Amino acid sequence: MIKALQSGNAELGLAFDGDGDRLGIVTKDGQNIYPDRQMMLFVRDVLSRVPGGTILFDVKCSQRLAPEIEAAGGVPLMYKTGHSLIKAKMKEVNSPLGGEMSGHIFFKERWFGFDDGTYAGARLLEILSRVPDAGILLNGLPTSFSTPELNVACKEGEPHTVVEALIKSARFAAPAKISTIDGVRVDWPDGFGLIRASNTTPVLVLRFEGHTQQALERIEADMLAAAQRQARRQLRRRGALEMVPPRSSLRVLREALQAAARETLRLCRPSKAAQAALEPRAPAPRGLIFLGAARRGGPAGLRVVKILLVKLSSLGDVVHTLPVVQDIHAALPDAQIDWVVEKSFAPLLALCWACAASSPARSGAGASRPWRRSRAEWSAFKAQLRQESYDAVIDLQGLTKSALVARLARLASPGGKRYALANQTDGSGYEAPTRWVADVAIHIAPQTAAVQRSRQLAAQALGYDLRPEPDFGLTRPSAQEKTGKSAPEEIANPTSLERVAFVHGTSRADKEWPLGHWIELGQRLVAAGYHLALPHGNAKELVTSRAIAKALNEPGSPAAATVWPLLSLDALTDELARCAGVIGVDSGVSHIAVALDLPHVQIYNFDTAWRTGPPASVPEGGGAPGRRQVSVFAQPTPSVDAVWQAWLACRQAPAAAHTTIVAAP
Fold this sequence. Notes:
The protein is of the alpha/beta class and 665 residues long. It is built from 23 helices and 28 strands. Strand 23 (531-534), helix 19 (539-552) and strand 24 (561-563) form a beta-alpha-beta unit.
């Protein structure tokens, strides 16, 4: 079928077993979409009409399936392997959909609840008829490194004996979670292992999955060690366990696992960049390229994974994307990362610690909104963009302009791919060309915060696990640096008091906080012993800064507030980093305060803090939140007292604490 797809005009291949109750799917580029990934696609469709439905799947299915079910609004339920067992359980819990790794898919929604490969194929075609490219949608389904199903032949009755004994004796340290509903399945945060007895033939069935190759190998080793221990006990007690004589059972098992590990990359087809990242090679210096601002790279002749990020604007969006750079460097330390960004935002990126060890930057040209510039500037930008060939081009913006940039970038041959969002997330801009251009379009759960959306997209594209907390790569100065570095004369702190910055400027009038509120809050801060810093980005914001300063500064007394001059983005970031904290509206500059891990209160007139503000978190054990960054929301606008109380709470919180959203009266 793969050869037929490669030589013909068909876009998709469907395969059925002898009695027609199982479905196989092959994409145009030869990818085998295994049944647990098929379920991910069917889940999204079925749950759009049956919200909250319970979705059944067997113990052999991917660990990636349950989160997809939850993201689509369903309830995942793992159960025993066996089509008759699945059908009976579906009836018991009134499930609209069930499936097995073996390929049996059971539709109860709009069908009769039995496994019919032809009907499953028809449901697949119904879904694919809504998208312009079936391969992009199917290849974008979440995947992991995994073995195929491994069957180890035994004497009649031995598989069940081994598994029963293994259930009684298996011990795995936390955070492993053991399920014995059908054999022994052990789930770790980064994968799972399964050993069970077949229902129909005398074989042990094994399957292993890891979010990375290293995780897969570790899980295989842990599960194999448990099987070895149990096999030795059986041999000592009964001398009866003999699998495929004359070779020992352990040798057969080990050889099967080793063969499966060798086949993992070929069978699962992770991204080219992820494959290359697993190959041993000499370390390369970290590099970060800003097309149109600065270029940094490793020594000539050294093969490194080359990744292009496309996130052009705005300031807040660029700040939200900074953790992607740190995530990639943590997973692929020697990767070269290039970033296409509007020139005005490049100085902020240059402060990222990933650049610290790189060679001196050289200026680029023509990347400041090249689509709005002259033909010559556009040509220069394209020429600069196409100087490199990339293993992965990741469109993190999801707009037509970013899709155009991603399409212009050159891919490494063979294996380079373009990645993009397959869907719009709540409250974010999204335009269809981004997925049309992509080789792999990746689904992200609709209600995903802006920072996590970019992190998840890049992690799925490159095949690595996310760290628990985002790292923006910006650092605050030490106490010595705060006092030792001389600021420009006109913004030097006129007193020895700690500074709190007011970020009142925003691109939208409906996000603003009333001038009287700023003045009243400023009075409370001055009474508490703080000096106020008032930055601005344009003439309108300068008027507001001056009005606040005029209301707070009393004639004949030391200045309580200082209006900063118009600063470049990097200089503004440096000065914010030297403040004791920041209070501001929803704006790019406020997001920089979050990235700097400053005590910060972010003011919202709309209930969008969950998406763009400090991420929500509930303190362990309950109680009042004690967080370093807090988003305060109320309509028509939060009160001064609500913002003040939030400031008092977050000012006392330790660095790098989780953050929360507080509903204001």
